[in-house]
């Protein structure tokens, strides 16, 4: 990492005058000399005179084009704490604005997030309050932290680690939340060096040894992109550079990969004049190089909560395997790098942050901390928010609720109360009625509409985002199904007991009963009833355990009725013959049962499977990891397996989706490649798109996973085929 050039009073004055020609430079000089005098004789851990530190902080702020008060405050920020200077003196010499900032930063400096949990939480709360008073306090504080991180190497090792960790936990995410990406990036890279030195130095080594190769690559690609753009009259500045170390490290950690190839760590940025040119540039790039599906993000139309705007895409074919490209205007670039600091209007000479989301965010946190009396709870919740882009919405009484990004009124209703969620029929957002799947935005005010007759349905699981709402809906559905099953089960059991003249209270005391419990896997009468209701336990199973064989035969002869036959058996007998899956699947403990494949996951032989029983409808076979299976009561689960002894081969109809270039004769070629691996095609459908692509859907008959894999690879190997997937 390049060392920052040495900051002096002169370099700072020069920077400030460049963006604020009318600035009161005399005040700036006065602040410097005042601080220089106050700190005279003090040294930094590096052995340098102390004044170097406040000067560096002032330079960081000047580089962000901050206002004069903030830069004066930077010079003075350590005087009150570390020297004999009193805050009153600062106010007298530099005015109230500067004094308030210095006071705010001084208070923050006393806080440490390295102490006990309790104190950490309390300090965080104080920091939010200080931020809400004047957001510049935190900008000066972040600059102070950056300066300290730059000279961290002079501190003892244990301090390096804890200070770095604190920076990663609190200050870097805060900088990110305020949109100050340049600050965030430098803080994170400095931290990596102390928190994971092995990774840091390895990356530094890779970057430095491949310097020539990398520069050549960057130059080639820059020229290529510039040429392509100029063909379409797009004037642009193209910048290529290595991504920051910490982001490479996070990526490696996320993907569990080792040090990546060189090309993957270089990203390009295209800076153009206006928004129209952004989209034009994107069009040119996508036409010239193949975009990676799913990697395009339009943060211009949908800006991030911290006001970040840019187009993101990843393309293939720029010399490397994948290249990330960001496209934005000069203005967007400035906001992206400086974030909230870009909101200082030097013409009016003041800081205008009224419209900035970050300020609203801080204010909301402030409101919120009043509700959360436990500081730890507050810290935990705020931390979650620091790391994810959550939305904050209000109840009619003004209470703030935090929900994950993309949350709907239904998530909100469950956040209010489980009963409110269960009875939710709709909502008013900012006074307007919206459907249940409406996406909430930060700042929305929500009123839930409930109905006493409403109950949750399985479809709701597709609407909600929050894990709390999901868990509550699942629990409700399972309970309801279970209740219905138990009523049915009780009915079956009561009839059984009556017909065979069995007393339950007597039976309960026998050793047979204990055996029954073990074999049929239930612990209570309730559970037995549920099992009977679902069909997992059959009447036959009970009878054969509790009534001796001879007695049973006598009884049967006497009754001359088939009423004692298992309900399920009866219900399914007629259907059994139709069951295509009947012989392919073995259901544990139950013979002669209707088996069908779940349409959601359509399993084929070789895949691991699980079964769910429904009384009267038999067993449904899902893939073991099917999401639907998750929503089903475990009581209904039944052990199933593929019948390996089957003589007749299984034939399963599977749909395969193929995306390809629209070339003549391709359908014939694809069909041929399917039949060439010995698989029948039941149906084929093809449609073409405007951009000369073709979507084909084949329904094929496969017997097992191997066969399916053969079909897929045969299709993939055809020229012109882009993707093949099972649908
Ligand atoms: Mn300091």
**What's the pLDDT, averaged over the residues?**
81
* C-alpha Rg (nearest Å): 35 Å
Spatial gap, N to C terminus = 48 Å
Question: What characterizes the major β-sheet?
Answer: 6 strands, mixed
What hetero molecules are bound to the protein chains?
A: manganese (II) ion
Low-pLDDT ranges: 560-579
Question: Strand fraction band?
Answer: 15-25%
Number of strands: 23
Helix content: 40-55%
Task: Explain this structure.
- The protein has 727 residues and is of the alpha+beta class.
- It has 31 helices and 23 strands.
- The strands form 7 sheets. Strands 1, 2, 3, 4, 5 and 6 form a 6-stranded mixed beta sheet that branches. Strands 15-17-16-18 form a 4-stranded mixed beta sheet. A 4-stranded antiparallel beta sheet has the order 21-22-20-23, covered by helices on one side.
- Strand 21 (680-688) and strand 22 form a beta hairpin.
- Helix 3 packs across helix 9 (135-150), helix 8 packs across helix 17 (357-371) and helix 8 crosses helix 18.
- The longest helix has 33 residues, at 467-499.
- Mean pLDDT is 81; it is low at 560-579.
- The structure holds manganese (II) ion.
- Manganese (II) ion binds at residues 53, 77-78, 144.
Features:
727 residues; alpha+beta; 6-stranded mixed sheet; 4-stranded mixed sheet; 23 strands; 50% helix; binds manganese (II) ion
């Amino acid at each position: 990492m390049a060392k920052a050039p040495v900051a002096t009073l002169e370099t700072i004055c020069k920077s400030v005058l460049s963006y604020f020609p009318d600035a009161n430079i005399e005040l700036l000089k006065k602040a410097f000399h005042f601080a220089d005098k106050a700190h005279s004789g003090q040294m930094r851990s590096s052995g340098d005179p102390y004044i170097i530190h406040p000067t560096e902080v002032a330079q960081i702020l000047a580089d962000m084009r901050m206002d004069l008060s903030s830069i004066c405050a930077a010079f003075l920020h350590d005087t009150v704490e570390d020297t004999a200077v009193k805050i009153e003196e600062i106010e007298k010499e530099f005015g109230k604005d500067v004094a308030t900032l210095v006071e705010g930063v001084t208070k923050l400096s006393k806080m440490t997030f390295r102490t006990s949990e309790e104190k950490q939480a309390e300090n965080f709360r104080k920091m939010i309050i200080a931020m809400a008073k004047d957001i510049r306090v935190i900008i000066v504080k972040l600059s102070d932290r950056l300066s300290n991180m730059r000279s961290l190497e002079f501190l003892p090792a244990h301090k390096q680690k804890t200070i770095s960790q604190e920076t990663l936990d609190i200050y870097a995410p805060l900088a990110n939340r305020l949109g100050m990406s340049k600050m965030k990036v430098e803080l994170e890279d400095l931290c990596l060096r102390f928190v994971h030195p092995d990774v840091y130095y390895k990356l530094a080594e890779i970057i430095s040894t491949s310097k020539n190769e990398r520069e050549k690559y960057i130059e080639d690609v820059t020229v290529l992109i510039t040429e392509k753009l100029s063909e379409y009259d797009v004037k642009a500045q193209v910048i290529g550079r290595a991504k920051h170390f910490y982001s490479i490290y996070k990526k490696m950690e996320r993907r569990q990969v080792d040090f990546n190839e060189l090309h993957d760590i270089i990203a390009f940025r295209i800076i153009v004049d206006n928004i129209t040119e952004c989209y034009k540039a994107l069009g040119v790039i996508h036409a010239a190089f193949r975009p990676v599906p799913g990697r395009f993000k339009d943060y211009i139309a949908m800006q991030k909560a911290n006001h970040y705007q840019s187009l993101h895409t990843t393309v293939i074919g720029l010399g490397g395997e994948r290249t990330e490209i960001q496209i934005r205007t000069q203005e967007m670039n400035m906001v992206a790098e400086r974030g909230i600091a870009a909101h200082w209007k030097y013409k009016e000479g003041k800081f205008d942050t009224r419209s900035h989301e970050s300020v609203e965010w801080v204010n909301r946190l402030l409101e919120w901390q009043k509700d959360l009396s436990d500081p730890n709870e507050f810290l935990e919740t705020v931390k979650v928010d620091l790391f994810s882009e959550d939305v904050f919405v209000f109840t009619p009484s003004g209470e703030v609720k935090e929900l994950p990004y993309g949350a709907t009124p239904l998530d909100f209703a469950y956040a209010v109360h489980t009963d409110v969620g269960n009875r939710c029929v709709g909502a008013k957002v900012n006074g307007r009625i919206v459907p249940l799947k409406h996406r909430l935005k930060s700042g929305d005010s929500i009123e839930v509409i409930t109905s006493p007759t409403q109950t949750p349905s399985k479809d709701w699981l597709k609407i909600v985002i929050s894990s709390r709402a999901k868990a509550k809906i699942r629990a409700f559905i399972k309970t309801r199904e279970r209740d219905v099953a138990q009523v049915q089960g009780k009915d079956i059991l009561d009839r059984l007991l009556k017909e065979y003249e069995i007393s339950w209270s007597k039976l309960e005391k026998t050793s047979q009963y204990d055996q029954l419990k073990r074999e049929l896997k239930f612990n209570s009468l309730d559970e037995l009833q549920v099992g009977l209701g679902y069909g997992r336990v059959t009447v036959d199973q009970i009878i054969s355990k509790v009534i001796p064989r001879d007695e049973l035969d006598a009884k049967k002869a006497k009754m001359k009725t088939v009423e004692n036959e298992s309900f399920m058996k009866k219900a399914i007998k007629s259907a059994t013959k139709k069951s295509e899956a009947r012989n392919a699947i073995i259901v544990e403990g139950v013979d002669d049962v209707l088996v069908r494949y779940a349409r959601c996951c359509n399993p084929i032989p070789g895949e691991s499977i699980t079964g769910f029983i429904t009384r009267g409808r038999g067993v449904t076979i899902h893939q073991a990891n099917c999401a639907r299976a998750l929503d089903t009561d475990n009581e209904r689960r039944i052990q199933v397996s593929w019948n390996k002894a089957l003589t007749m081969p299984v034939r399963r109809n599977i749909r395969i989706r193929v995306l390809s270039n629209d070339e003549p004769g391709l359908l014939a070629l694809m069909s041929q490649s399917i039949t060439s691996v010995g698989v029948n095609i039941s149906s084929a459908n093809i449609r073409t798109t405007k951009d000369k692509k073709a979507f084909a859907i084949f329904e094929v008959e496969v017997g097992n996973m191997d066969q399916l894999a053969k079909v897929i690879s045969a299709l993939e190997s055809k020229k012109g085929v882009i993707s093949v997937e099972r649908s």
